[in-house]
């Protein structure tokens, strides 16, 4: 009752023509670039992680500063109210 009905799979005829291409050998530049790519990827990952950590710390400092400011306003209001009585 709740089983989905799947459409029938159509099989298309596959062509039997094969193409052969000759590829020129790749000349080596002398020094492989793979180690430099690995160092670059590691550096980018480190920068991203450090950026995320610093952003989180900045957000924590901002939230703490706002809460301290609100607490100071409330305490000042309470102290001023006590002095007026």
Secondary structure elements and their pairing?
Layout: H1 34-84
Write structural notes for this entry.
It is a single chain. By secondary structure, this protein is mainly α. The chain is 60% helix and 0% strand. The chain has one helix spanning 34-84. The longest helix is centred in the last third of the chain and has 51 residues, at 34-84. The model has no long low-confidence stretch (mean pLDDT 79).
Helix content: 55-70%
* Main beta sheet: none
Radius of gyration: 34 Å
Mean pLDDT: 79
**What percent of residues are in strands?**
under 5%
Strand pairing plus helix content: what structural class?
mainly alpha
Shape: elongated
What is the H/E string? H
Poorly predicted parts = none
For the terminal residues, how far apart are their CA atoms?
A: 77 Å
Count of alpha/pi helices: 1
DSSP summary, beta strand count: 0
Task: Briefly characterize the structure.
With 85 residues, the protein is mostly helical. The chain is built from 1 helix and no strands.
Give me some keywords for this one.
mainly alpha, 85 residues
């Amino acid at each position: 009752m709740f089983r989905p009905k799947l459409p029938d799979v159509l099989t298309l005829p596959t062509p039997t023509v094969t193409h052969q291409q000759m590829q020129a050998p790749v000349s080596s530049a002398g020094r492989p670039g793979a180690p430099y790519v690995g160092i670059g990827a590691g550096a980018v990952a480190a920068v991203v992680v450090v950026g995320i950590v610093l952003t989180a710390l900045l957000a924590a400092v901002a939230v703490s500063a706002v809460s301290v400011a609100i607490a100071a306003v409330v305490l000042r209001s309470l102290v001023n109210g006590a002095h007026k009585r």
